[in-house]
Amino acid sequence: MALNNKAARIAETTGNAPVMFRLSFLLLATIAGIYAALMILGGENLRAERILSQPVAVRLPEPVALPEAAAMPDMPEQAAEPLPQPEQTPERAPRFPGPALERSPEFAGRDPQTETPAPAAPDGPALWVTANRLNMRAAPDTAASVVTGLDGGTRLEPLAPEQDGWVNVRAPGGQTGYVSAQFVSDQPQ
């Protein structure tokens, strides 16, 4: 049995030899063909540094002899003249400024400059936000739009008793909406 397994393994490895030889030959022939095509069609020197055909003569200015300081003892030092300032590039308006800004639909019909928030009554009932950040919503539902965000410790004025886990409240900015009852407390933080 052991002899048959050994013979089978030898047959498997030597059976692939002609295939591997053909693949290797095909790979080498392909590389040689690409190399030959590049040599024929790409005869230019495409390197960044070009070889100059003739040397270029550079003429340097002749050095100027400066007078010594001892030869001119009474000469006052002259202030250097300021160089002229280059003109600044004029500001240009953007070529494509985009569409005109429109008011958000949640603020439609309201003017923020004339709107005065109704202050919460300091002596009436109050609730305080216990979460770090709490969304006040337009309706008692998590899918309702957010009216504003409230920071932790914000004092709220309840407008109605808790119903189905939601409380109708007025924020310090005058906005009214609903907050989840689990994130407010009647005790200040």
Q: Based on Cα principal axes, name the global outline.
A: flat
Q: Which homologous superfamily in CATH is the superfamily of the domain at 127-185?
A: SH3 Domains
What's the number of helices? 2
| CA-CA gap between termini | 85 Å
> How big a fraction of the residues is strand?
15-25%
Structural class: alpha+beta
The CATH class designation of the domain at 127-185 is: Mainly Beta
Number of strands: 7
- The radius of gyration is 43 Å
Largest sheet, order of strands side by side? 6-5-4-1-7
Could you say what the CATH topology of the domain at 127-185 is called?
Answer: SH3 type barrels
Task: Write out key terms for the chains shown.
21% helix; five-stranded antiparallel β-sheet; SH3 type barrels; alpha+beta
Task: Compose a concise summary of this entry.
The chain is an alpha+beta fold and 189 residues long. The protein is built from two helices and seven strands. Strands 6-5-4-1-7 form a five-stranded antiparallel sheet, with no helix packed on it. Strands 2-3 form a two-stranded antiparallel sheet.
Question: Could you outline the blueprint of secondary structure elements for this entry?
Answer:
Layout lengths: L1 H14 L1 H25 L85 E3 L3 E5 L8 E6 L3 E4 L7 E5 L5 E5 L3 E2 L4
Provide structural commentary.
This protein has 189 residues and is an alpha+beta fold. Among the domains are: 2-41; 127-185, SH3 type barrels, CATH 2.30.30. It is built from two helices and seven strands. The protein has helices at 2-15, 17-41, and strands spanning 127-129, 133-137, 146-151, 155-158, 166-170, 176-180, 184-185. The strands form two sheets. A five-stranded antiparallel sheet has the order 6-5-4-1-7, with no helix packed on it. It has a two-stranded antiparallel ribbon with strand order 2-3. The relative contact order is 0.09. The model has no long low-confidence stretch (mean pLDDT 76).
